[in-house]
């Protein structure tokens, strides 16, 4: 088997394709959650806390120095506001995944609880037995 055909067989297996679809959907879901947090959840939280925008919050360790154009020094800061936003996004994602798993578990439990129909031969034998019981003689 040539390397190209072996690679094609590997790439076309279901697991690889399922993984690729999961990664793409996960990336899109991440963008949706980022938008939800940044544009819907954080503004009311900022409003409730007096106009605080967490994404801009930082603790400056060393301010930027642009006095010498040849030796510009960038700001050194701990951006705890971005961390708070990321933490809120994580909580939302974790809760969404929890709800999906909970729904899947509920559906699978209902399928397990449903009684299985007896096989055709068992049903036929049961019917014959019942007919013989009610036969005169």
TrEMBL record:
- The protein's predominant localisation is membrane
Q: Which residues cross the membrane?
A: 16-37, 77-101
Cellular location(s): Cell inner membrane; Cell membrane
Family to which this protein belongs: Belongs to the MscL family.
Subunit: Homopentamer.
* Task of the protein: Channel that opens in response to stretch forces in the membrane lipid bilayer. May participate in the regulation of osmotic pressure changes within the cell.
Q: What is this protein called?
A: Large-conductance mechanosensitive channel
Q: Which organism is it from?
A: Rhodanobacter sp. IGA1.0
Record gene name: mscL
């Amino acid at each position: 088997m040539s390397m190209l055909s072996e690679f094609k067989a590997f790439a076309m297996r279901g697991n690889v394709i399922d993984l690729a679809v999961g990664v793409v959907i996960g990336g899109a879901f991440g963008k949706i959650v980022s938008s939800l947090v940044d544009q819907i959840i954080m503004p009311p939280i900022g409003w409730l806390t007096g106009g605080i925008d967490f994404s801009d919050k930082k603790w400056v360790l060393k301010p930027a120095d642009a006095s010498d154009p040849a030796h510009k020094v960038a700001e050194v800061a701990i951006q705890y506001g971005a961390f708070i936003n990321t933490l809120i996004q994580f909580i939302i994602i974790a809760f969404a995944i929890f709800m999906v798993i909970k729904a899947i578990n509920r559906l699978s439990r209902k399928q397990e609880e449903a009684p299985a129909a007896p096989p055709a031969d068992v049903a036929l034998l049961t019917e014959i037995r019942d007919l013989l019981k009610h036969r005169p003689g």
